[in-house]
Amino acid sequence: MGRGLFLSVLALLGAGIAVPGGAQDFGEPLVIAHRGASGERPEHTLAAYERAIDQGADYIEPDLVVTRDGVLVARHETEISGTTDVAKRPEFADRRRTRTIDGHTVTGWFAEDFTLAELRRLRAKERLPALRPANARYDGLYQVPTLAEVIALVRAKEAETGRRIGIYPELKHPGHLREQAGIDTVALLLRELAEAGIGAEDPVFIQSFEIAPLRRLDALSDYRLVQLVAAEGGPADAPALRYADMVTMAGMERIAEYADAVGADILLAIEIDGTPSGLVSAAHAAGLQVHAWTLRKENAFLPPSLRRGEDDAARGCPEKLWTILARTGVDGIFTDDPAIAVAARDGASCPG
Q1: According to the UniProt entry, where is the signal peptide (predicted)?
Q2: Catalytic site residue 284?
Q3: Does residue 76 carry a catalytic annotation?
């Protein structure tokens, strides 16, 4: 189901159909800070992660790519021109490449072509400046952080706040990086977690859209693993398999052979009338948790009934969508706006 259909489908929400007064209370879903507080700071920066922690997020999510010298760093994709100022750096003009990644042609600058020292010369920028112009005010202030720095921040904030803060790393395109660049991000991640003294008993989830890396992680470790599934397409490393097949009862049972949770597109968790789909019940029956992605505040990401005004960048009513998702029985919700999610979990409604 595409985003356009999702918006029309959830138009019923405004009438209250999806929030029946007698809905079962499934508890309080985890608040997972999607790339940090990326609704308020440029994503995947230490500033975004720290703000998310200060706002009460249970977990922060660093997407992981890798440098040429084998250092895991936090970026949304291996192509970095959308989130850094690399395109304006004349000294790196000759690094521009065109590559095929998981069947898609991508032109730009790729993290695996830079050493960490070179990457340090770049500065982060807002990926969605038209929708988040306030974030763009922070362009140029922050470096690309390493996973080690993210872990160090988490530990510092745990000492400051006295509460546990989880990390929820995603391995981005691990199959492509292993085959094309000869870099094994599974091995790198396990090594860095071990060196940091982070074990399976700590609050950690490791996620991927691919299957083979999760199976390797399951064989090599006891960390909690999350199979990501989208509303369309299928895993890059299993071209004959569709995500739609993976979210059936039989599909969930196969996922449960190697994973502990499913990270599902919101589109998969809600039926046309806004009631829970079969995904959550199938996952729970297989012993899997469900974490839904992604809750955002801007009108552009909300169904028509939850928007306010005509400006795509204006704040809508994500609190109501939080309530809908919580009542499906999901165990966690990824959000760009942890403060809003935490308040919604505590019962807050849309302001004004």
Answers
A1: 1-23
A2: no
A3: yes
